[in-house]
Amino acid sequence: MTYETHDQQHPRQRGGRRGSGPRWARGRWASGSEERPSAEQRAEIKAWFAGRLPDDFFVGAPEVTVDNDEILVLGPLSAVELEAGVTAEAAATAEEARIERFREDTREHRVRIAEEAQARFGRVVSWGATAGGTTRLFTTANVPVMTRLRISQRQVLDTLIDAGIARSRSEALAWCVELVGRNEAAWIDELRTAFAHVEEVRAQGPSANRPADS
């Protein structure tokens, strides 16, 4: 999986244009809220993209991932037909070319969709595509994350810098997150599933006739 530059700017970089979207999305950038999107909100965003994306964009349903800052749309492209006996390197080259063709051919249309979604949901939209065994994310947001680390934790980051693995603490922290995500993918998926179940149970609970705060 590779990462490339944006086709559109992050909303924080150009004023965060907001439009007539859901009430929970409006004003998000101005308020600086850190509240995570609920299962209902994520479902609404995914449904919007399911209806808004052209039928010929992808050969299957895209994977739409949502967090506080970004919506990532990752869709499958048609397989590349190759002659029998081609090398893995040649196949990867053909898949890269198929993804690049999609990127260039759909750029203007994707930018329009991204701007509509940004105005509606208050999040930058990123894109990616998969062809065969190749996946490229060519519009992804780099969002600064503020955190407090103890000295022992900072020493881990500084060790990565001293070893030449990272150039800064922020880059070292991103490397650590990537490593955990790659090596503990099954465990992370279990946590996500458990969290989704908690949200479903919470959504099914009573919401009316709650006693007013005294």
Can you tell me about this structure?
The chain has 214 residues and is α/β, with parallel strands linked by helices. The protein has 2 domains: 2-143, no CATH class; 145-204, no CATH class. The chain has helices at residues 28-31, 39-52, 88-105, 107-121, 151-162, 169-183, 185-204; strands at 2-3, 63-66, 70-76, 124-131, 134-139. The longest helix has 20 residues, at 185-204. The radius of gyration is 20 Å and the shape is globular. 17% of the residues are buried.
Give the neighbour order of strands across the main sheet: 1-5-4-3-2
The total strand number stands at 5
Q: Could you tell me how far the N terminus lies from the C terminus, measured between alpha carbons in angstroms?
A: 53 Å
Radius of gyration, Cα only, in angstroms? 20 Å
Helical content band: 40-55%
**Series of H and E elements:** EHHEEHHEEHHH
**Largest β-sheet summary:** 5 strands, mixed
- Proportion in β-strands: 5-15%
User: What structural class is derived from the secondary structure elements?
Assistant: alpha/beta
Instruction: Name the average pLDDT.
Output: 81
Number of helices: 7
Structural domains: how many:
2
- Based on Cα principal axes, name the global outline: globular
Low-confidence stretches: 9-18, 26-33
